[in-house]
Specification:
The protein is α+β, with helices and mostly antiparallel strands. It has two helices and four strands, in the order E-H-E-E-H-E. A four-stranded antiparallel β-sheet has the order 2-3-1-4. A hairpin with a 4-residue loop joins strand 2 and strand 3. The longest helix is centred in the middle third of the chain and has 18 residues. The N and C termini lie far apart (29 Å).
Length: 86
Amino acid sequence: MKLSVELTLTPLQNDFEEPIIHFIKQLRKSGFKVLENPMSTQIYGNYDELMHYLTAEIKIIFEKSENVLLYIKMVKTDRSSYERNY
């Protein structure tokens, strides 16, 4: 099953940029299709493989950060080729 995931990492600390940059760099190295915009990062792949990968990466970022929020939206399909028509 294909999966599209939108992630928004929000560290609750003064030095918030480093954890975000580290997290995005790790996603880029994953081998999954990754798209970024100023507000979030999208990652696309097979459900089982992607969730296994994300579970590990989320644990790492949570262990490295004192207080952090991670907003996750998931869609059961591959939306990586979506193009708006407006």
